[in-house]
Write a structure and sequence with these properties.
The complex is a heterodimer of chains A (about 250) and B (about 325).
Chain A lengths: L2 H17 L1 H23 L10 H30 L2 H6 L5 H24 L11 H26 L8 H14 L12 H9 L1 H13 L13 H26 L1
Chain B lengths: L3 E10 L2 E11 L4 E5 L6 H8 L7 E6 L2 E2 L4 H7 E4 L11 H11 L4 H14 L15 H13 L5 E5 L7 H18 L2 E6 L10 E6 L2 E6 L1 H6 L4 E7 L2 H12 L4 E3 L2 E6 L2 H12 L3 E7 L3 H9 L11 H15 L1
Parallel strand pairs in B: 3-8, 3-9, 6-7, 7-8
Antiparallel strand pairs in B: 1-2, 1-4, 4-5, 9-10, 11-13, 11-14, 12-13
Helix pairs in contact in B: 3-4, 3-5, 4-5, 5-6, 8-9
The chains are: A mainly alpha (about 250), B alpha/beta (about 325).
Chain lengths: ~250, ~325
């Protein structure tokens, strides 16, 4: 792996992210809308369970959503780079395809984690009490989940050549991933078929891991669905698989 | 030792053969032109040399490295300017160049200096902090050539470098490109379908339907046409024709009220004609063979031009521009 190349791929993404105000604003606005409009409305219908209010319950899911959208957008920008030619500049450089994939996945992770942290800091508004260790734990999980979702996005991006496919990715990949991640309702309450689908979703384990940190005392329906060890193991293993698959796809298609 | 060595290169896409047993060498420090109509196999060949495509069979060596087996060493040895821009329009000129310097692992101490140097070279130093999306087509292309030079490549590939540029930008770019071999010792490998642009090359390979049909210097290639053509108008064409035959032993023929004469060296033939015919000569014009004529002769067809912008209209544009600006 070439570290200068990884650094500059990340630096480019970061620079463009900071420069595009609209992207930053919508990245922060989306979770706020879901949390305070959807969440607040649903709270009237769903009473607190096991000491956890509905807003508190969806908070890890909203963090997951922030990461999902931001990481996927970052990775899907590969399709833009292909369409506008910039990808060729990277592909003809003396850097391994693994470097490109890791660089891109890290770009998505950093930008996503940053946004997730901004949302995370709203926790007092929801009546949550998080200490320094909880916050650090949440940030570490955000980094891992971001990396894995970004790597997943890269694998998806290698299948497409033009950004016309963007709405297809949005409707058939990103939105189902969000709703089947346990973000808005517990996986354990889903019908059998949907529960199966949720278990195949990489984001499910990220949202689940965040639930351990955000509402550690939750019990009953709104408690986490898997063990924290399972969550972390699945995230790490999937990251490795996605990076590997992305590298292979890049070697084949470019 | 040649810097590029291609032997029996074949590339097939299904039933289409884009490169059909191509062989050629390019000497270091020269400008080599790959000339041919669109879809003749130029971009395919360049893609193989740049390690973006694997050949079906045959060998390609760049700077002594095998394009298939030693792709990383080949990539370090080359700079590329693609047909379509590969700049990031949302970054500044300088950021695009720095990105490249990091990507090619240019030493930390050298990075800034090299970026500044190439920016000055292409006359964009005072625009370095502008976003590339504000640049004109010519500026973008110049920036891309500059970027291709940052890591000091041995070979610079230019795939249709002037495509879509206005006449003045094209002239500027050529002036700049042709000076590179001497300044940097870099070898230039370019493709073009503009015949007039190929004149700057030291050597040209003409490619059609995946085959190299001729390879030589532009001067030598033009000799296949059999020299220049002189058009002559006189007070009495029939009488002049006889005089030319009896005094100079040259056959002239008549076409559209003009005499036309083929000559190996038209420039030395004209004085002789005027001496022979004296003041009955009304006008003389000399037409030198162009690479277009060469292509026409070799393939039996004119080179297909893109977007209807044929060589004549571009020349007309250059003339019109010069009238306005010079």
């Amino acid at each position: 792996m070439e570290f200068n190349a990884i650094y500059v791929i990340v630096a480019r993404e970061f620079k463009k992210f900071v420069r595009e105000r609209s992207r930053l604003v919508s990245a922060i606005a989306r979770p706020l809308v879901w949390l305070f409009l959807v969440g607040a409305g649903m709270s009237r219908l769903v009473p607190p369970v096991g000491g956890v209010s509905y807003m508190q319950f969806i908070f890890p899911g909203i963090l997951g959503m922030t990461i999902l959208f931001s990481s996927m957008f970052s990775s899907i920008s590969i399709i833009w780079d292909k369409e506008f030619g910039f990808m060729k500049e990277i592909l003809v450089a003396p850097v391994s395809r693994l470097t490109i994939v890791v660089g891109k996945a890290l770009s998505g992770s950093i930008v996503s984690t940053l946004q997730a942290v901004i949302v995370l800091l709203l926790f007092p508004l929801l009546g949550l009490k998080l200490g320094a260790t909880d916050i650090i734990g949440a940030v570490i999980i955000c980094v891992l989940v971001s990396f894995s979702v970004s790597a997943f996005g890269i694998v998806i991006a290698t299948f497409y050549e033009s950004y016309e496919s963007f709405s297809a990715i949005m409707n058939f990949i990103i939105m189902p991933m969000f709703f089947l991640s346990g973000a808005m309702y517990p996986v354990k309450l889903l019908p059998e078929a949907l529960r199966f689908a949720a278990k195949l979703n990489p984001l499910t384990y990220g949202v689940d891991a965040l639930k351990y940190v955000i509402s550690p005392l939750a019990h009953g329906a709104m408690s986490p669905d898997f063990s924290i060890v399972t969550d972390l193991a699945v995230i790490v293993v999937l990251s490795v698989i996605f990076v590997f698959a992305g590298t292979k796809a890049f070697e084949r298609r470019g | 030792m040649p810097i590029i060595k291609v032997e029996n290169l074949v590339k097939r896409f299904g039933s289409i053969t884009a490169a059909n047993n191509i062989s050629f060498n390019v000497e270091e420090g020269t400008i080599f032109g790959f000339l041919g109509p669109n879809s003749a196999g130029k971009t395919t060949t360049i893609s193989i040399l740049c390690t973006l495509l694997g050949p079906t069979s045959g060998n390609a060596l760049v700077n002594g490295y095998d394009c298939t087996k030693e792709s990383s060493s080949v990539r370090k040895s080359i700079g590329i300017v693609f047909q379509d821009t590969t700049l990031d329009k949302d970054l500044t000129a300088e950021e695009n160049l720095l990105f490249h310097a990091y990507l090619y692992n240019v030493e930390k101490a050298e990075r800034r200096k090299r970026v500044d140097d190439v920016l000055k070279l292409v006359d964009l130093f005072n625009r370095k902090d502008d976003l590339v999306k504000k640049f004109s087509g010519g500026m973008k292309r110049r920036l891309e050539v500059a970027r291709g030079l940052i890591h000091r490549p041995k070979v610079l590939f230019l795939d249709e470098p002037t495509l879509g540029l206005d006449p003045q930008s094209r002239l500027n770019l050529w002036e700049f490109i042709t000076a590179l071999p001497e300044k940097y010792g870099v070898t230039i490998f370019m493709t073009t379908h503009y015949m007039d642009e190929a004149e700057v090359c030291d050597n040209i390979a003409i490619i059609d339907n995946g085959n190299i049909i001729a390879m030589n210097s532009p001067e030598e290639l033009k000799k296949v046409i059999g020299g220049d053509v002189i058009y002559l108008k006189t007070r009495d064409n029939a009488k002049a024709k006889d005089e030319i035959k009896s005094m100079l032993d040259i056959d002239a023929s008549t076409r559209d009220g003009e005499l036309f004469i083929s000559a190996v060296r038209g420039d030395t033939c004209i004085p002789e004609l005027i001496r022979t015919l004296g003041d009955s000569v009304l006008s003389v014009r000399l037409q030198r063979p162009t690479l277009n004529d060469v292509f026409l002769k070799l393939t039996g067809k004119a080179i297909r031009e893109e977007g209807g912008a044929d060589t004549d209209t571009i020349k007309a544009e250059v003339r019109a521009y010069r009238r306005r600006h010079e």
